[in-house]
């Protein structure tokens, strides 16, 4: 991992890996979509249960992406490594997109199940706060012209946002919430009906691989952008 922290090694290693990830993500998404429509409706929720195959993976990836952003921010802030900063920056947009998708699909699922589009439930509120951290991170970087100062300020905010991750994860255990507790990964085994597991697990794998493809592609793009800026700065100095 630390060997790949060198931008040249990283670019050489991820060059052939990125297209493989995109192909695998597409294949898993197609397979997961087929499983989702092939699964039967729930005896209580009917076809509404199919929202689970989008909502659960999106919510999981929203958390995972912010974890990647926070850890990358730590290495960028402590070791001042440009590749770590590029990794943190690259995780923000897809993480925000997955979190927004989780909020929208959660509302669509909650309305027929709970009779309302939104409640200030601990889980829902903490996921909304997570989304706001993503927006704040991107806005802070965009508001400071000096990239070095923007990177440090955003890294601090990224680290602060890590506090919210366990709150999102354990909010249903710590407080009396309307949102159901964990049903896939829990002590005593999953409570998800086996007929839904192929679709759910395939879609979760598809979202994870898709995030990996987007993240690595974005990091590579950021490395190239910074190299171009460096070359322009050198050319300007020579001129």
Give a description of the structure.
Residues 10-179 form the Cytochrome c assembly protein domain. This is Heme exporter protein C. Keywords: Cell inner membrane, Cell membrane, Cytochrome c-type biogenesis, Membrane, Transmembrane, Transmembrane helix, Transport. This protein is mostly helical and 239 residues long. The chain has one domain. It is 77% helix and 0% strand. It contains seven helices and no strands. It has helices at residues 7-38, 52-79, 82-114, 122-143, 147-161, 164-174, 197-238. Helix 2 (52-79) crosses helix 4 (122-143), helix 3 (82-114) packs antiparallel against helix 4 (122-143) and helix 3 (82-114) packs antiparallel against helix 7. The longest helix has 42 residues, at 197-238. The radius of gyration is 20 Å and the shape is globular. The model has no long low-confidence stretch (mean pLDDT 87).
CA-based shape: globular
Evaluate the radius of gyration: 20 Å
Beta-strand content bin? under 5%
pLDDT < 50 stretches: none
Domains (count):
1
Number of strands: 0
- Mean pLDDT over all positions: 87
Structural class: mainly alpha
Instruction: Bin the helical content.
Output: over 70%
Helices, by number, come to 7
Q: Write the element-wise H/E pattern from the N-terminal end onward.
A: HHHHHHH
Please outline the major beta sheet: none
Task: Give the CA-CA distance, first to last residue.
Answer: 39 Å
